Amino acid sequence: MNAEMDRAEYRVNLTKEPGTYFVIADDEGVYDSKVWKSGEELRRYVVEVQRAADSEVERYVQREDLTAACDDSQSPLKFRTYQAVSHGHAAALAMREFAEQMAFEELADVFYADELAFTGAGFGDSSS
Questions:
Q1: Of 66, 19, 68, 20, the residue nearest 47 (C-alpha)
Q2: How sure is the predictor about 1, in pLDDT bands with cuts at 50, 70 and 90?
Q3: What is the C-alpha to C-alpha distance for residues 30 and 70, in angstroms, rounded to an integer?
Q4: Beta bridge partners of 78
Q5: Backbone dihedral angles phi then psi of residue 87, each to the nearest 5 degrees
Q6: Of 14, 39, 50, 122, which has the highest C-beta tally within 10 A?
Q7: Distance (Å, rounded) from C-alpha 41 to C-alpha 36?
Q8: Which backbone phi and psi does 80 adopt, to 5 degrees?
Q9: Residue 89 neighbours by CB under 8 Å, 6+ apart
């Protein structure tokens, strides 16, 4: 039975069954030397995707193992949970979430930059 469990660890379910997936992602690209050399934008790299176990006890152990792996890493890894239909779908959701987060941050930068530009030009200055 132990050999059977070892084989099951490497099996990927190719059916499209909705379920919970655990994703480990690296948002800072610490292991990607191209980011450091060329000054490219940061991207989310999906390091690991696992389907959550059906058993509550196994799911708890699985979550604890993945969280510990994130904590022990040199890179600031993020642990995320998604409802998806496949490993690829979960990875795509992680990438989309990061892209939306970056777009929101860029929008906030533009908003506050415009606000500061008007203040610096003398608009809204009540001291004069």
A1: 66
A2: very low
A3: 13
A4: 25
A5: -60, -45
A6: 50
A7: 10
A8: -130, 155
A9: 21, 82
Cα 45–Cα 82–Cα 89 angle in degrees, nearest 5:
65
Look at residue 42 in the predicted model and tell me its pLDDT.
66
Give Cα 82 distance to the centre of its chain: 10
Q: How far apart are CA 52 and CA 80, in angstroms?
A: 12
Find the largest Cα–Cα distance for the chain: 82
Give the torsion sign (CA, 49, 13, 96, 56). Answer: negative
Neighbours of 44 (CB within 10 A): 22
Type of residue at 119? T
pTM attached to this predicted model: 0.65
CA distance 67 to 81: 11
pLDDT in tens, 60-108: 999 999 999 888 877 788 899 999 999 999 999 999 998 888 788 777 7
* DSSP letters spanning 33-58: HHHHHH-PPP--EEEEEEEPPSSHHH
